[in-house]
Design brief:
Blueprint lengths: L1 H14 L1 H39 L3 E6 L2 E3 L6 E3 L4 E2 H8 L4 E16 L2 E10 L3 H4 L4 E4 L7 E4 L1 H7 L9 E4 L2 E9 L12 E5 H8 L5 E2 L1 E6 L5 H15 L9 E4 L1 H44 L1 H9 L4 H43 L17 H27 L3 H6 L2
Parallel strand pairs: 6-11, 8-10
Antiparallel strand pairs: 1-13, 1-14, 2-3, 4-12, 5-6, 5-9, 5-13, 7-10, 8-11, 9-10
Helix pairs in contact: 1-10, 2-8, 2-10, 2-11, 8-10, 8-11, 10-11
Length: 411
Amino acid sequence: MILEIVSLSLKHLMHRKLRTFLTVLGVVIGVAAITGMVSATQAISNVITEEIEKFQVNVIEVIPGEFKLGFSLFGGETMKATLTEKDADIIRSIGGVDVVSAGIYRYGEISKGKERYYLNIMGIDEYFDEINTIGIYKGRYPRKGKEVLVGYSVAYDLFDKPLAVKEKITIEGEEFKIVGIMNKAGGLFKSIDSMVYIPKETLRELKDIDKNTVDLIDIKVKDNVDPEIVAKEIEYKLAKAHKVSVDEKDFTIFSPEFSKKIASQITGILQILLGSIASISFLIGAIGIANMMFTSVLERTREIGILKAIGATDRQIMMMFLIESGIIGLIGGIIGIFFGYGLGQGFLILRQYMLSKISMFETVVQAPSIEINFGLSVTALFVSFIIGILAGLIPARKAAKLPPVEALRYE
């Protein structure tokens, strides 16, 4: 009996091809929007995680202020606070810590000839070369005085003519000798390629910075030591030194897991926002299905009367209309999933193209690819089927309650 009802429902849908197509389209848009946006943000999250693991497997970073995730431009903010050289010494005393490098940074004018730019100048210490995961492309690290290590983009993309080791550039009105060029970082760490590195004490003299203040502390953890355990110990020791509780700490520790957690939270917020917007399309699709089924009930009133006259029950009539609306939702879901993954990949390609047009991101990692998420696909298919049934529930009940005699008289 069920197969007969399904067959009859399919015949009715095929008989009204254009109307069925337009109704299915509403569901397709909803499923495609949700599947595409969720899968695209997940792909971006995966790329961020891979970049973090690539460069920061056993590196921890401490910065001043407490990081708070919010809806600011970069996903979070930090409260103003300070770190000191004493904090770096405290961290060096912790078991499991291999190398500690304390640095400072300021924006400053970098020039060569008539070309002038404002870049981030990083003041590094003698431990920087042991903790730097990017590495040197040419030359060496600056040791003292007016020596500078330049980022890859500074050397080869910023100025009209590429820079070379042993050349001179001007930083804040002072002449510096280029002693090295960094490897290209690219991707998530692209900003590193647009920085210059000079000895920490030299930057303090240039910018009149207090000799005890530092802006960040990088920590390399020993092999076979869990960075998260070391991060907890650093948190406890620094909180004690700063005379604050761990819950009210005035610094933030970026361990590999914490960084991945922040990235996951940001992409999670995006998924919720984009998913909520896309859900409106689902609502429109449901209204379209309900409208089609109401119209179908009116058009087939006499047919319903005939079916009841030959023995069809209210339940069978109701089931026939519910199956029709469910099939519409199911077909829309299947097509929407395929279009959704295409939409998601298109979104990623467009994002990559837009980033490539911004000077800061002239060279970025290859566009992330959409991965087929079986769980997401099944969920989207199930939801579209249920929405189809729910949208057809009221029209189906109306059809089932039609009196046979009145239905047969209907013209």
